[in-house]
Specification:
single chain, Immunoglobulin-like, 4-stranded antiparallel β-sheet, 3-stranded antiparallel β-sheet, 7 strands, about 30% strand
């Protein structure tokens, strides 16, 4: 069965990366471990908090890979312990979050079993640019775009 692309319209130019991102999201369903929160802590700031009780800082890794925030946890088995009951598993995990363009990871802290990862979204300045149209021989198609017009004189100016 072939998959229908959502972005095959000729009006959607350059959105292949969005389609790849959606494919990546659908493949990483995940098991829900570790649980996490995402909160807005300022106008352009976010915080992802993961519950990682039992993990030491050297057993956690936070990386940004190809527009993805990837958090990994690896606990080493303590061979010297003898468990009569083991309800808390020493497990590995990998949790990924797809980052929009411009989102930057500014830091991570581990406090009381919670890993806080702070992100910032810089304000995007709207950019408007006029593209000059030229004729086949390279001349400006419109004189008013290529050459600035002189300012109109006031009625009381002599000239």
């Amino acid at each position: 069965m072939s998959r229908v692309s959502l972005f095959n319209s000729p009006l959607l130019l350059g959105f292949e990366h969005v389609e790849r991102t959606l494919d990546r999201l659908s493949r990483h369903g995940g098991d829900g471990y570790p649980p996490y929160n995402i909160e807005q802590i300022g106008p352009n700031r976010l915080r992802i908090t993961l519950a990682v009780a039992g993990f030491a800082p050297n057993e956690l890794e936070v990386q940004v890979e190809d527009h993805q925030l990837v958090i990994r946890g690896r606990q080493a088995e303590d061979q010297n312990r003898v468990y009569l009951h083991r309800g808390i598993a020493a497990r590995q995990f990998q949790r990924s979050f797809v980052l929009a363009d411009g989102i930057e990871v500014i830091g991570a802290t581990l406090d009381a079993g919670l890993l806080n990862i702070d992100l910032v979204r810089p304000e995007v300045q709207a950019k408007v640019r006029t593209v000059e149209i030229r004729t086949a021989d390279g001349q400006p198609a419109r004189k008013d775009v290529a050459e600035p017009r002189p300012a109109p004189r006031a009625a009381n100016e002599s000239g």
